[in-house]
Recover the amino acids of this structure.
């Protein structure tokens, strides 16, 4: 037992001390956060810097009164004729727009916005948002409803949407968030399983081609060496994830206090993201999508626990297979023919996740894939953000544990023979023969 | 030290060891000889408990071989190497700790060995920065640092230049003098006679010969002698065919001497033979032809049953 700790220690320390580990650990979150910070920063900059003048030609007559000036847009209601104003735009007056509201605006809900150069998106959003409010209010008024009480009811609907999310209905208003998280998790677990699995394989090949393996297994059992390597590298992976989470949280806090103090900016940025999503227009009466509430609806604790459980289970399962492959070959180039078939079960749910799994996370394909130990790490993580009954998660995790025990046993039998076979090209038939050797 | 009884090891179609029994006396240097693929490495791996035999058992110092004995064995495999990117000192510590030494103990002993072999400056070097011979030296230290009672060396001198081979050979002999039993596996016969007290010869999974080196060589004495002489005044080389005391195997003539290799016939003695020579020639030298281990090895491995020393005829 003491010896396996020595092996774990060597595998862990030799990797964590590497420069590449530090580089990846610290640079990746920096890169991600930095990217978002840059986007927000630029948004803020451009938002604060621009000031647009919008000339309104209101053929209806009642609308222009309801448009409100703010920091970035000043409406002007001149009565100059249309052609003259268009000529003005042609001459390239900067930050000037012409908004033409037709007489039948309330029925067609269509406007024209002319500008010199490319129309500014935030100006468009602002105008659209204001006009939506106006239109909505007009419709309420026609129906004889009180606008203020409607707003009050809207708030209640949002609370109801949170309830729906927790019971797992796919048609709740936060589906997009669940999708985004599912895709992210699926990508992360797929990548990390392949990455760390390959590291195990490389480690085994290195020991074999260095010819140190026989020296080591004259002191410890091959199984101890294999498990020591797997556990050591797995701990490197977990260390990396924990550091990533800590670093991201720290950076996120710094970034949000430093840059998001201006709530208006944040809302503007959020709104833009949301309006770009398809099908958003019909969701709530209030055009402001409550991003924070949506994020609150995601159970991050559950997700984190699930991620670690399924990463660990999947890692133990796949790294054992990778170790067996590493033991069977003499060089990494030779390993290709074996890594293909063993990464297939990972690749399938990963590819399916973009369509089938995300669109129908509780369908039979998704459910089955999330139960089979080889595919469950990826498939289950796609499903979890949509809400999966606890019994299913527990069942899938237990099956995964069973799966990795079986594969480890299987891999160990090949490994103990493979590491001592030099210069012998292993075929599948050969591997089966090794498997049947009696120790 | 080691009692190997009826070991059989079967790999699907191929039988690697077929009923091998050996006795390795305590404090001896035991040569395990055999051509490539004879089963030496299979046997050594079983002794090191890397693999298990299908049947038969091994007694280590009177006890049935058990995983706890691993710490009393030092093994230098034929296929050996070190972690290329790891610093020598750390690597040695790691390997020594795997053999059950505490960190402090291991550090002390490794330092002592490094001083002895004058390689202290290598502590912080990486293996990839060392030459092949240097690596072998380090590897040798890793094999013996835990002061094992049984040291198993599989082709220990491969990769060494003659100077370093000599250094290592002296270290092996010194370890043996201090009480370590050494199993020396090789197919290079020259060193066997210098080093080994006992040998076992394995060929095609079977033991074909074992025992003390001296006895084996005696049993292979063929009553073959070389007699060098100069011819007397009349210049006539005697015609040896007239006598039935011996058979002539080879005759050589140089400017000032003749050399004849003879095999005594049954019941005859060297004295009688010399009596035959004395009146005829001036004897300059008489020497017995003792078969080298190399000859014995070749003889067994090539399975020439008719002529024991075919290369003499």
């Amino acid at each position: 037992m003491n010896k396996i700790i020595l092996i774990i220690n060597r595998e862990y320390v030799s990797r964590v001390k590497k420069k590449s580990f530090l580089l990846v650990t610290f640079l990746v979150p920096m890169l991600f956060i930095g990217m978002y910070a840059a986007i927000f920063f630029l948004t803020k900059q451009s938002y604060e810097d621009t000031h647009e003048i919008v000339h309104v030609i209101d053929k209806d007559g009642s609308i222009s009164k309801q448009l409100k000036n703010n920091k970035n847009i000043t409406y002007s209601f001149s009565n100059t004729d249309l052609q003259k104003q268009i000529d003005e735009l042609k001459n390239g007056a900067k930050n000037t727009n012409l908004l033409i509201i037709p007489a039948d605006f309330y029925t067609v809900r269509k406007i024209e916005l002319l500008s010199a150069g490319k129309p500014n998106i935030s100006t468009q959003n602002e105008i659209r948002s204001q006009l939506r409010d106006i239109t909505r209010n007009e419709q309420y008024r026609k129906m004889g409803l009180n606008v203020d009480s409607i707003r009050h009811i809207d708030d209640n609907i949002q609370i109801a949407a949170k309830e729906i999310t927790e019971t797992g209905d796919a048609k709740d208003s936060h589906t997009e968030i669940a999708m985004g998280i599912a895709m992210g998790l699926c990508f992360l677990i797929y990548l990390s399983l392949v990455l760390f699995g390959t590291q195990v394989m490389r480690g085994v090949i290195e020991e074999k081609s260095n010819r140190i393996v026989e020296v080591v297994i004259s002191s410890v059992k091959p199984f101890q060496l294999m498990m020591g390597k797997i556990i050591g590298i797995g701990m490197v992976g977990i260390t990396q994830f924990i550091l990533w989470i800590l670093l991201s949280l720290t950076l996120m806090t710094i970034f949000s206090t430093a840059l998001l103090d201006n709530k208006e900016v944040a809302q503007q940025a959020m709104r833009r993201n949301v309006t770009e999503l398809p099908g958003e227009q019909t969701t709530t009466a209030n055009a402001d999508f409550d991003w924070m509430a949506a994020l609150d609806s995601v159970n991050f604790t559950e997700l984190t626990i699930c991620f670690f459980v399924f990463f660990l289970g999947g890692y133990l399962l796949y790294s054992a297979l990778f170790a067996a492959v590493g033991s069977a070959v003499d060089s990494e180039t030779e390993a290709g023919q074996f890594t293909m078939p063993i990464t297939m079960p990972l690749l399938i749910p990963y590819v399916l996740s973009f369509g089938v799994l995300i669109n129908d996370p509780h369908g039979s394909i998704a459910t089955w894939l999330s139960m089979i130990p080889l595919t469950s790490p990826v498939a289950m993580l796609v499903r979890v953000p949509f809400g999966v009954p606890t019994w299913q998660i527990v069942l899938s995790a237990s099956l995964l544990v069973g799966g990795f025990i079986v594969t480890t046993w299987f891999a160990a039998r090949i490994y103990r023979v493979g590491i001592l076979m030099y210069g012998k090209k292993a075929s599948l038939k050969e591997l089966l023969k090794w498997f049947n050797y009696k120790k | 030290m080691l009692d190997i009884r009826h070991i059989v090891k079967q790999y699907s179609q191929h039988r690697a060891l077929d009923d091998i029994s050996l006795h390795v006396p305590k404090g001896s240097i035991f040569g395990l000889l055999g051509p490539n693929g004879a089963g030496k490495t299979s046997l050594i791996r079983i002794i090191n408990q890397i693999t298990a035999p299908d049947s038969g058992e091994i007694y280590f110092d009177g006890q049935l071989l058990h995983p706890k004995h691993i710490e009393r064995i030092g093994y230098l495999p034929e296929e050996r190497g070190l972690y290329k990117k790891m610093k020598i000192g750390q690597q040695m510590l790691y390997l020594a700790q795997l053999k059950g030494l505490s960190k402090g103990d291991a550090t002390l002993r490794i330092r002592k060995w490094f001083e002895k072999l004058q390689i202290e400056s290598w502590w912080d070097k990486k293996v990839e920065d060392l030459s092949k011979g240097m690596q072998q030296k380090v590897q040798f230290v890793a094999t013996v640092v835990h002061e094992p009672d049984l040291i198993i060396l599989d082709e220990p001198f491969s990769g060494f230049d003659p100077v370093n081979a000599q250094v290592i050979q002296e270290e092996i002999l010194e370890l043996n003098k201090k009480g370590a039993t050494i199993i020396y596996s090789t197919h290079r016969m020259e060193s066997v006679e210098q080093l080994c007290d006992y040998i076992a010869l394995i060929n095609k999974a079977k033991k074909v010969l074992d025992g003390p080196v001296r006895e084996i060589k005696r049993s292979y004495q063929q009553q073959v002698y070389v007699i060098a002489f100069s011819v007397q005044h009349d210049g006539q080389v005697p015609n040896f065919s007239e006598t039935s005391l011996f058979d002539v195997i080879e005759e050589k003539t140089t400017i000032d001497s003749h050399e004849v290799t003879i095999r005594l016939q049954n019941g005859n003695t060297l004295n009688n033979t010399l009596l035959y020579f004395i009146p005829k020639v001036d004897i300059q030298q008489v020497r017995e032809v003792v078969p080298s281990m190399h000859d014995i090895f070749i003889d067994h491995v090539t399975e020439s049953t008719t002529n024991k020393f075919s290369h003499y005829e």
Notes: Chain B has two domains: 2-214, 222-288. The interface with chain A takes residues 11-12, 45, 48, 50-52, 54, 70, 73, 75-77, 79-86, 94-95, 97-99, 139, 142 of chain B (CB under 8 Å).
